[in-house]
C-alpha cells in the first residue's frame, strides 16, 4: 500500500516536471509565430474569400481533392494565393466540408505565420466538437509530440460556415519544431477502407511496394520513399526470433515510447487508433534520414472518449483476430513492456485527475465554444446532441481514471 | 498487343533486309531488269553516271509538280497522282498530311486485271473495283526507347507509342473516305491526354472542284506542324505549340479548295469542339469552333532555283464555357515527360487562335517557322466573380533539315538507294529551336500561379531539338533525337535547381 502511494507521488512529481518543461518549450515562446493561431483561449475567426462557384463545387465534389484558390484572413493578416481542398476520410462532408489549407501550393516558399499548411477540421463525427482537441492536448500534456489545436469560426465570403478546429498539420515544420530536424522519412498510415481485412502490421514479403505507398504513404522523400526500411522493420516485428527480438527491434522502434503512446490512446478510449475497432489507424511514423529508428505520431483523435468503460485490452485480447495489431500483440508478451503500458495508463489517469484537469478543460472549452457551436447550422447534429455529448465528456473525465485503475489492478492480479 | 508489335517489328526487319517483300518494297530497282535480277538473288548494278542522270531527270520531273494538289506539305507525293486518283490522305482534300509517295508503275505489284476487280500492293495493299470503289489498308507503328531526367516517375524506357490501323479509299472517285484507329493505349494515356481511339474518320465529297466538302472527324485546319502527318515529321515529337496550342482533330464539316494552280488554297469549317489537344480527362475544352486557313506560294514566279516558299496562316474561334468545376484553360507541358509546368486557369467566353507559318524547301534542305497565339476570355473568373484579363499562350519555332545523302527534301523522305539494296537509305540532320510561354494580357495585381490570378505568373519552356533521321526505305525509318529543355520557372521545373535537362529518344517507325 505504501509502495503504491510512493509510486503515485512519484508520478505526480513527474507530471509536474513535464508540465513545466512543456511550458518552457520553444512553441510557447514569442519566436513561434504560429503559436498565436493555436492559442486555445479564444475562438478565432478565419475568413476565406474565394469564387462562389468554387465553394459550391468544393461542396458538391467533396469526395475529390480538387484544390481551389482563395485568400485567407485571420485577425489583421491576409495571406493571398492559397489553395483549399476538401479533406478527411469518414468525416468528409459536403455540407460542412473539412478543409486542408495549402499555404504554399501555388508558391513554394509562401508561409503564413511560419506554416505551410493548416487543417480546418469539421468535427462531423463528434457532436461535442471537442474530442480531437482534448485528446491532442492530453498527448502534449503527457509530453508526446502532437498537433496543436484551437477553435475557429469559419466564414466563407462573409457567410458563417460553422465551428471548426484549427489543426497543426504533420509536416516538416512540425518535425522541425518537435524534433529539431526534418530531413527524414515521414509516412502517413493510409487506412484502406475498401479492404475488409485491415493491414495490422503483418509481414507481406520482401517487396517494398507492399508497404509503400499503401499502407504507408510517404509525406517526404516521395520520389524515393525507402519502403525497404519499412519492410525490414515489419519483418523484424513478425519474423525475428524470440531470443533476439528485443535487441533487433531496438534498431527500428523505441518500444518504451511506443507503449507510452499506446497507453495514452487507450486511456482516452481511442476506438480508431493503433488498436482500433477497424484495425490500426490514425498515426504517422517518422524516422530520421540516417537512422532506422521509427517514431509514432498521433493523428485524428476524433473517436477518443468513446466510452468510460472502454477496456484497456480491447482489440488486443478480444475483437476480430485479423484486426489485431501484430506489433502490439508481440510487444505485450514481454513483462517490462506490459508494465510500461500499464504504468502509462495509471500515469494518464493521474494526470487527467490532477486538480480535476480533464473535467476542468471540458468545462472551460464548453464555455468557449458553446455560442459558436449552437449557432452552427451546418453541423450534422442538433444542439441537444451537442449538449448530450458534452455531458458524456464530463462523465468520462470524472470516471475514466477510476475505471482504468481498476482494469490495471485486475490485470496485475491475474 | 505485344504480339502485334512483335509481328510489326519482324515485318519491318524483313522489309529492311528486303526479304521476302523485296519486290514490293524495292523502289529503286530498274523496272526492266529488276524481276530477273531478283529471281537470281542479285541486284543489278547501274553505272554511277547513268544513275545520276536518272536521278536528275526524276528530280526535275518532281520539281515541276512539287506541291500536291491540296497545296499542303505533301511534296514528293505527287508524281504518280497524275495517272492515279489520289488516296484520301494524298488528295487535295487532305489536312493531315500523311501522304506517302506513290510508287512508280515499276514498283507496283498487282494481281488481277487492270479493269474490274483487282488487288494491288503499291504503298498500301489495295482492293479496287474498276473506278467504282477502292479500299487501301494502311498501318502506322512507332515504337520508342527513351530516357530523360532522373526521377521522372512515369517514363517507361521502352514504349509502344503509336500503333494505328486504318483504311482509306473512294467511291466513284468523287466520294473519298478514311477510317483510322489507334490500337495501343499509350497515345490514349488516361492520366495525361485521353483521346478517342478513332483518329481520322471522314468522307470527302469532291463534286465541286474548288469547294469540296469534308465531313466527319479530322484535323481542324490550323498549324503547319500539327497538320503535317505523324509519320512525316522531321522530329520524333511535334513542336510544343503544335502539341499544346493547336487544336488537332475534331468532329465537324469543312469546305476547301484551291485556285491559281494550287498557288492559293483555303480550308474553312465548323467543328463540335476545339480539338483533342485542348481536352483531357479533366479539361472540358472549347465548344463550337469556327476555323479557317489559307496557304499560298506568292513567290513562285520569282524564286526560280531557290526552291519554293509557302506561306500560311490560320485562325480559330471557339466558345469557352465554365460549366466544368475544373479549370478549362490550356496546359503547358514538357516535350517527352509531359510534366505540367503551366496548370490550366479558369476561362469563359471565347478562345481565339491565330498562327502564321512559312515552309521553304530547296534541294536537300528545308526550313520551317511558325508562330502561334492563343487568347482565352476570363469572364467572371476572378475570386470575387469579377472579369479578369485574358489568358494568353504563345509559341514559335524555327527548324531546318539537311539530307546528307543528297535526296531532294520531301515529306516523307524517299531514299534514292534503300538500305541493303545497294545503299544506306537516306540520312538527314534536323534541328529545331522553339519557345512556348503563357501569361495574361495585362493585370494590375501581383503575378500569381493560382488559376484565378488576375495577373498570371508567366511560365516559359524553351527547347532545342537535334536529330538524325535515317530512312532505310519507304517502310522503315529510324529517328534519333536529343531534346534540351529549360522550364524557366524554377518552381515548375521538373528538375532540381531549375536547371535545363536533356531527353533522348530513338524511334523505330514502320509504315505500310
CATH superfamily of chain B: Porin
- Main structural class of chain A: alpha+beta
Strand content of chain B: 35-45%
Spans of at least 5 consecutive residues with low confidence of chain A: 19-30
Query: What is Rg of chain A?
Result: 21 Å
Total helix count of chain A?
11
* Percent of residues in helices of chain B: 10-25%
Q: Strands across the major sheet of chain A, in which order?
A: 1-2-3-4-5-7-6
Mean pLDDT of chain B: 81
Oligomer state equals heterodimer
Please name the CATH architecture of chain B. Beta Barrel
- CATH class designation of chain B: Mainly Beta
The CA-CA distance between the termini of chain A, in Å, is 18 Å
| Residues in helices of chain A, as a percent range | 25-40%
**SSE sequence of chain B, one letter per element:** HHHHEEEEEEEEHHEEEEEEEEEEEEEEE
So how many helices of chain B? 6
Shape call of chain B: globular
Query: Cα-atom Rg of chain B, whole angstroms?
Result: 23 Å
Tally of individual domains of chain B: 1
Write out the strand line-up for the largest beta sheet of chain B, numbering strands in chain order.
4-5-6-7-8-9-10-11-12-15-16-17-18-21-22-23
Q: Quote the beta fraction of chain A.
A: 15-25%
Amino acid at each position: 500500500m505504501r509502495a503504491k502511494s510512493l509510486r503515485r507521488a512519484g508520478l505526480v512529481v513527474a507530471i509536474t516536471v513535464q508540465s513545466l518543461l512543456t511550458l518552457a518549450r520553444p512553441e510557447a515562446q514569442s519566436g513561434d509565430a504560429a503559436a498565436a493561431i493555436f492559442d486555445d483561449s479564444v475562438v478565432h475567426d478565419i475568413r476565406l474569400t474565394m469564387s462562389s462557384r468554387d465553394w459550391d463545387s468544393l461542396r458538391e465534389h467533396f469526395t475529390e481533392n480538387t484544390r481551389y484558390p482563395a485568400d485567407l484572413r485571420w485577425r489583421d493578416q491576409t495571406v493571398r494565393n492559397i489553395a483549399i481542398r476538401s479533406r478527411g476520410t469518414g468525416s468528409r462532408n459536403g455540407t460542412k466540408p473539412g478543409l486542408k489549407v495549402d499555404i504554399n501550393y501555388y508558391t513554394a516558399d509562401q508561409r503564413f505565420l511560419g506554416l505551410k499548411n493548416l487543417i480546418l477540421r469539421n468535427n462531423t463525427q463528434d457532436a461535442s466538437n471537442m474530442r480531437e482537441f482534448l485528446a491532442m492536448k492530453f498527448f502534449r500534456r503527457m509530453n508526446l509530440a502532437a498537433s496543436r489545436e484551437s477553435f475557429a469560426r469559419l466564414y466563407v465570403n462573409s457567410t458563417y460556415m460553422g465551428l471548426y478546429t484549427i489543426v497543426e498539420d504533420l509536416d516538416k515544420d512540425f518535425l522541425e519544431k518537435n524534433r529539431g530536424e526534418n530531413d527524414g522519412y515521414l509516412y502517413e498510415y493510409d487506412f484502406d477502407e475498401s479492404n475488409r481485412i485491415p493491414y495490422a502490421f503483418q509481414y507481406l514479403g520482401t517487396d517494398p511496394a507492399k508497404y509503400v505507398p499503401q499502407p504507408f504513404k510517404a509525406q517526404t522523400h516521395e520520389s524515393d520513399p525507402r519502403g525497404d526500411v519499412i519492410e525490414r522493420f515489419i519483418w523484424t516485428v513478425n519474423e525475428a526470433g524470440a531470443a533476439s527480438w528485443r535487441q533487433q527491434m531496438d534498431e527500428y522502434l523505441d518500444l518504451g515510447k511506443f507503449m507510452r503512446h499506446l497507453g495514452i490512446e487507450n486511456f482516452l478510449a481511442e476506438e480508431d487508433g493503433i488498436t482500433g475497432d477497424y484495425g490500426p489507424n490514425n498515426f504517422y511514423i517518422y524516422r530520421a534520414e540516417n537512422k532506422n529508428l521509427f517514431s509514432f505520431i498521433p493523428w485524428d483523435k476524433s473517436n477518443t472518449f468513446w466510452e468510460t468503460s472502454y477496456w484497456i485490452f480491447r482489440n488486443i485480447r478480444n475483437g476480430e483476430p485479423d484486426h489485431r495489431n501484430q506489433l502490439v500483440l508481440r510487444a505485450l508478451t514481454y513483462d517490462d513492456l506490459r508494465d510500461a503500458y500499464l504504468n502509462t495508463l495509471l500515469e494518464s489517469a493521474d494526470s487527467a485527475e490532477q486538480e480535476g484537469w480533464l473535467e476542468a478543460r471540458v468545462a472551460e472549452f464548453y464555455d468557449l465554444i458553446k455560442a459558436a457551436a449552437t449557432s452552427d447550422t451546418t453541423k450534422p447534429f442538433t444542439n441537444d446532441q451537442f449538449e448530450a455529448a458534452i455531458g458524456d465528456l464530463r462523465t468520462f473525465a470524472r470516471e475514466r481514471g477510476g475505471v482504468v485503475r481498476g482494469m490495471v489492478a485486475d490485470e496485475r492480479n491475474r | 498487343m505485344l504480339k502485334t508489335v512483335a509481328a510489326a517489328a519482324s515485318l519491318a526487319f524483313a522489309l529492311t533486309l528486303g526479304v521476302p517483300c523485296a519486290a514490293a518494297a524495292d523502289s529503286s530497282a530498274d523496272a526492266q531488269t529488276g524481276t530477273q535480277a531478283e529471281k537470281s538473288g542479285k541486284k543489278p548494278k547501274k553505272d554511277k553516271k547513268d544513275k545520276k542522270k536518272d536521278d536528275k531527270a526524276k528530280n526535275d520531273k518532281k520539281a515541276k509538280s512539287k506541291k500536291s494538289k491540296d497545296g499542303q506539305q505533301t511534296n514528293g507525293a505527287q508524281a504518280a497522282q497524275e495517272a492515279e486518283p489520289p488516296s484520301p490522305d494524298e488528295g487535295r482534300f487532305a489536312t493531315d498530311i500523311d501522304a506517302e509517295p506513290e510508287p512508280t508503275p515499276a514498283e507496283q505489284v498487282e494481281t488481277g486485271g487492270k479493269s474490274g476487280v483487282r488487288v494491288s500492293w503499291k504503298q498500301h495493299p489495295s482492293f479496287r473495283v474498276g473506278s467504282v470503289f477502292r479500299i487501301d489498308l494502311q498501318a502506322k507503328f512507332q515504337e520508342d526507347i527513351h530516357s530523360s531526367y532522373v526521377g521522372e516517375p512515369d517514363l517507361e524506357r521502352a514504349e509502344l507509342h503509336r500503333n494505328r490501323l486504318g483504311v482509306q479509299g473512294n467511291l466513284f472517285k468523287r466520294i473519298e473516305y478514311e477510317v483510322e484507329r489507334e490500337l495501343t493505349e499509350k497515345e490514349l494515356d488516361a492520366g495525361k491526354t485521353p483521346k478517342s481511339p478513332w483518329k481520322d474518320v471522314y468522307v470527302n465529297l469532291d463534286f465541286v472542284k474548288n469547294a469540296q466538302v469534308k465531313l466527319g472527324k479530322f484535323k481542324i485546319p490550323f498549324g503547319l506542324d500539327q497538320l503535317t502527318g505523324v509519320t512525316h515529321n522531321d522530329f520524333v515529337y511535334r513542336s510544343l505549340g503544335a502539341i499544346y496550342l493547336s487544336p488537332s482533330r475534331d468532329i465537324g464539316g469543312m469546305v476547301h479548295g484551291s485556285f491559281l494552280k494550287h498557288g492559293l488554297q483555303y480550308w474553312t469549317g465548323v467543328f463540335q469542339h476545339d480539338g483533342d489537344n485542348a481536352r483531357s480527362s479533366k479539361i472540358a475544352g472549347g465548344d463550337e469552333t469556327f476555323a479557317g486557313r489559307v496557304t499560298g506560294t506568292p513567290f513562285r514566279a520569282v524564286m526560280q532555283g531557290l526552291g519554293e516558299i509557302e506561306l500560311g496562316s490560320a485562325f480559330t474561334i471557339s466558345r469557352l464555357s465554365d460549366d466544368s468545376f475544373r479549370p478549362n484553360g490550356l496546359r503547358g507541358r514538357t516535350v517527352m515527360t509531359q510534366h505540367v509546368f503551366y496548370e490550366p486557369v479558369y476561362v469563359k467566353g471565347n478562345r481565339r487562335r491565330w498562327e502564321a507559318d512559312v515552309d521553304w524547301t530547296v534541294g536537300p534542305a528545308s526550313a520551317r517557322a511558325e508562330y502561334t497565339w492563343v487568347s482565352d476570355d476570363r469572364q467572371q473568373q476572378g475570386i470575387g466573380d469579377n472579369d479578369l484579363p485574358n489568358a494568353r499562350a504563345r509559341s514559335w519555332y524555327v527548324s531546318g533539315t539537311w539530307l546528307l545523302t543528297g535526296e531532294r527534301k520531301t515529306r516523307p523522305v524517299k531514299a534514292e538507294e534503300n538500305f541493303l539494296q545497294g545503299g544506306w537509305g537516306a540520312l538527314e540532320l534536323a534541328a529545331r529551336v522553339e519557345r512556348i510561354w503563357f501569361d495574361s494580357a495585362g493585370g494590375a495585381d501581383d503575378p500569381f500561379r493560382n488559376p484565378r490570378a488576375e495577373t498570371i505568373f508567366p511560365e516559359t519552356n524553351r527547347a532545342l531539338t537535334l536529330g538524325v533521321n535515317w530512312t532505310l526505305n519507304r517502310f522503315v525509318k529510324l529517328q534519333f533525337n536529343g531534346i534540351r529543355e529549360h522550364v524557366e520557372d524554377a518552381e515548375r521545373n521538373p528538375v532540381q535547381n531549375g536547371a535545363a535537362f536533356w531527353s533522348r529518344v530513338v524511334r523505330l517507325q514502320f509504315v505500310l
